[in-house]
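Could you please consider the sequence and fold appended to this message?
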Amino acid sequence: MIDPQPVLTDGDVTLRPWRDDDVAVAVAGHDELIAHWFGWAVDAVTEETQRRAIADWRASYDDDRAVVGFAVEVDQRLVGTVDVRRRDDGVGELSWALFKGSRGQGYATRAARLLADYALTPTDEGGLGYWRVEAKVEPDNTASLRVATRSGMRREGVRRVEPGTSDRSDTTAYVILARLASDPPISE
Protein backbone atom coordinates (compact mmCIF):
# COMPACT_ATOMS: atom_id res chain seq x y z
CA MET A 1 0.00 0.00 0.00
CA ILE A 2 1.25 3.48 -0.88
CA ASP A 3 1.51 6.03 1.90
CA PRO A 4 -0.97 8.91 1.67
CA GLN A 5 0.17 11.89 -0.36
CA PRO A 6 2.21 14.09 1.96
CA VAL A 7 1.83 17.75 2.82
CA LEU A 8 5.05 19.66 2.11
CA THR A 9 5.86 23.09 3.51
CA ASP A 10 8.72 25.51 3.93
CA GLY A 11 6.84 27.44 6.61
CA ASP A 12 5.27 29.91 4.17
CA VAL A 13 4.23 27.92 1.11
CA THR A 14 2.40 24.62 1.55
CA LEU A 15 1.90 21.89 -1.03
CA ARG A 16 -1.05 19.69 -0.16
CA PRO A 17 -3.28 17.19 -1.91
CA TRP A 18 -6.15 18.71 -3.86
CA ARG A 19 -9.56 18.78 -2.18
CA ASP A 20 -12.98 18.75 -3.80
CA ASP A 21 -13.74 22.17 -2.35
CA ASP A 22 -10.76 23.64 -4.28
CA VAL A 23 -12.59 23.42 -7.61
CA ALA A 24 -14.31 26.83 -7.70
CA VAL A 25 -11.22 28.75 -6.53
CA ALA A 26 -9.01 26.97 -9.07
CA VAL A 27 -11.40 27.67 -11.95
CA ALA A 28 -11.68 31.33 -10.94
CA GLY A 29 -7.88 31.63 -10.73
CA HIS A 30 -7.20 30.48 -14.29
CA ASP A 31 -6.73 33.34 -16.72
CA GLU A 32 -5.39 34.29 -20.13
CA LEU A 33 -1.76 34.01 -19.00
CA ILE A 34 -2.12 30.41 -17.83
CA ALA A 35 -4.09 29.56 -20.96
CA HIS A 36 -1.38 31.10 -23.14
CA TRP A 37 1.57 29.25 -21.60
CA PHE A 38 -0.22 25.90 -21.42
CA GLY A 39 -1.71 26.21 -24.89
CA TRP A 40 -5.32 26.01 -23.72
CA ALA A 41 -8.38 27.96 -24.69
CA VAL A 42 -9.10 30.62 -22.06
CA ASP A 43 -12.34 28.88 -21.09
CA ALA A 44 -10.89 25.33 -21.12
CA VAL A 45 -10.72 25.05 -17.32
CA THR A 46 -14.25 24.46 -16.10
CA GLU A 47 -15.53 22.97 -12.87
CA GLU A 48 -15.94 19.66 -14.69
CA THR A 49 -12.39 19.64 -16.10
CA GLN A 50 -10.94 20.70 -12.74
CA ARG A 51 -12.84 17.94 -10.91
CA ARG A 52 -11.56 15.44 -13.48
CA ALA A 53 -7.97 16.71 -13.06
CA ILE A 54 -8.21 16.32 -9.27
CA ALA A 55 -9.61 12.79 -9.66
CA ASP A 56 -6.80 11.94 -12.12
CA TRP A 57 -4.11 13.28 -9.74
CA ARG A 58 -5.54 11.20 -6.89
CA ALA A 59 -5.79 8.05 -9.01
CA SER A 60 -2.26 8.46 -10.35
CA TYR A 61 -0.84 8.96 -6.88
CA ASP A 62 -2.68 5.93 -5.53
CA ASP A 63 -1.76 3.81 -8.55
CA ASP A 64 1.86 4.42 -9.47
CA ARG A 65 2.72 8.07 -8.76
CA ALA A 66 3.32 8.69 -12.47
CA VAL A 67 1.82 12.15 -11.90
CA VAL A 68 1.83 13.80 -8.48
CA GLY A 69 -0.18 17.01 -8.32
CA PHE A 70 -0.34 19.43 -5.41
CA ALA A 71 -2.42 22.46 -4.58
CA VAL A 72 -0.19 25.41 -3.63
CA GLU A 73 -1.40 27.24 -0.55
CA VAL A 74 -0.23 30.38 1.25
CA ASP A 75 -1.88 31.48 4.51
CA GLN A 76 -4.54 28.80 3.92
CA ARG A 77 -5.39 30.41 0.57
CA LEU A 78 -5.17 28.42 -2.68
CA VAL A 79 -2.74 30.27 -4.98
CA GLY A 80 -1.81 27.75 -7.64
CA THR A 81 -0.80 24.28 -8.68
CA VAL A 82 2.41 22.30 -9.15
CA ASP A 83 3.00 18.78 -10.36
CA VAL A 84 5.71 16.35 -11.36
CA ARG A 85 5.22 13.81 -14.15
CA ARG A 86 7.41 10.75 -14.59
CA ARG A 87 9.03 10.95 -18.03
CA ASP A 88 11.57 8.13 -17.76
CA ASP A 89 12.78 5.82 -15.03
CA GLY A 90 13.99 8.17 -12.29
CA VAL A 91 13.21 11.35 -14.27
CA GLY A 92 10.34 13.72 -13.55
CA GLU A 93 9.14 16.86 -15.31
CA LEU A 94 7.98 19.76 -13.13
CA SER A 95 5.16 22.08 -14.07
CA TRP A 96 3.62 24.97 -12.15
CA ALA A 97 1.06 27.73 -12.46
CA LEU A 98 0.02 30.47 -10.09
CA PHE A 99 -3.46 31.89 -10.22
CA LYS A 100 -4.10 35.51 -11.11
CA GLY A 101 -3.36 37.81 -8.20
CA SER A 102 -0.76 35.46 -6.72
CA ARG A 103 2.16 35.91 -9.11
CA GLY A 104 5.38 37.83 -8.51
CA GLN A 105 5.66 37.02 -4.81
CA GLY A 106 8.04 34.06 -4.93
CA TYR A 107 5.37 31.40 -4.39
CA ALA A 108 6.10 29.52 -7.61
CA THR A 109 9.82 29.34 -6.85
CA ARG A 110 9.17 28.01 -3.37
CA ALA A 111 6.59 25.51 -4.63
CA ALA A 112 8.90 24.26 -7.40
CA ARG A 113 11.76 23.93 -4.92
CA LEU A 114 9.61 21.98 -2.45
CA LEU A 115 8.38 19.63 -5.15
CA ALA A 116 11.88 19.13 -6.58
CA ASP A 117 13.19 18.31 -3.10
CA TYR A 118 10.39 15.77 -2.60
CA ALA A 119 10.88 14.23 -6.04
CA LEU A 120 14.66 13.89 -5.51
CA THR A 121 14.33 12.39 -2.02
CA PRO A 122 14.88 8.61 -1.96
CA THR A 123 11.73 6.49 -1.63
CA ASP A 124 12.93 4.96 1.65
CA GLU A 125 12.98 8.50 3.05
CA GLY A 126 9.43 9.25 1.86
CA GLY A 127 10.17 10.85 -1.51
CA LEU A 128 9.68 9.81 -5.11
CA GLY A 129 13.25 8.63 -5.60
CA TYR A 130 13.98 10.45 -8.85
CA TRP A 131 17.59 11.13 -9.80
CA ARG A 132 16.62 14.05 -12.06
CA VAL A 133 13.85 16.63 -12.27
CA GLU A 134 13.54 18.91 -15.24
CA ALA A 135 11.37 21.65 -16.64
CA LYS A 136 10.84 22.69 -20.22
CA VAL A 137 10.13 26.38 -20.55
CA GLU A 138 9.45 28.43 -23.63
CA PRO A 139 12.35 30.84 -24.25
CA ASP A 140 10.20 33.97 -23.95
CA ASN A 141 8.56 32.89 -20.67
CA THR A 142 11.00 34.88 -18.53
CA ALA A 143 8.98 34.49 -15.34
CA SER A 144 9.08 30.68 -15.53
CA LEU A 145 12.77 30.71 -16.46
CA ARG A 146 13.42 32.69 -13.26
CA VAL A 147 11.28 30.27 -11.23
CA ALA A 148 13.21 27.29 -12.56
CA THR A 149 16.66 28.74 -11.92
CA ARG A 150 15.74 30.12 -8.49
CA SER A 151 14.37 26.73 -7.50
CA GLY A 152 17.76 25.16 -8.20
CA MET A 153 17.47 23.97 -11.77
CA ARG A 154 20.36 24.59 -14.12
CA ARG A 155 19.92 25.57 -17.74
CA GLU A 156 21.10 22.74 -19.96
CA GLY A 157 20.19 23.96 -23.40
CA VAL A 158 17.44 24.44 -25.92
CA ARG A 159 15.40 21.61 -27.40
CA ARG A 160 14.11 22.46 -30.82
CA VAL A 161 10.75 21.02 -31.88
CA GLU A 162 8.96 20.85 -35.17
CA PRO A 163 6.20 23.49 -35.35
CA GLY A 164 2.86 21.97 -34.42
CA THR A 165 4.33 19.03 -32.47
CA SER A 166 4.49 20.65 -29.02
CA ASP A 167 1.79 21.64 -26.55
CA ARG A 168 1.38 24.91 -28.44
CA SER A 169 1.22 25.02 -32.22
CA ASP A 170 3.47 28.10 -32.41
CA THR A 171 6.26 26.72 -30.20
CA THR A 172 9.51 25.80 -31.93
CA ALA A 173 11.83 25.44 -28.92
CA TYR A 174 11.99 24.87 -25.17
CA VAL A 175 14.71 25.75 -22.71
CA ILE A 176 15.56 22.62 -20.71
CA LEU A 177 16.49 23.15 -17.07
CA ALA A 178 17.23 20.38 -14.60
CA ARG A 179 18.31 19.54 -11.10
CA LEU A 180 19.97 16.26 -10.16
CA ALA A 181 19.81 14.45 -6.84
CA SER A 182 23.61 14.78 -6.70
CA ASP A 183 23.57 18.59 -7.14
CA PRO A 184 24.69 20.59 -4.10
CA PRO A 185 21.89 21.61 -1.71
CA ILE A 186 20.13 24.87 -2.37
CA SER A 187 20.71 27.56 0.21
CA GLU A 188 17.96 29.97 1.21
About this structure: The mean pLDDT is 88. The first helix runs from residue 23 to 29. The first strand starts at residue 8 and ends at 9.
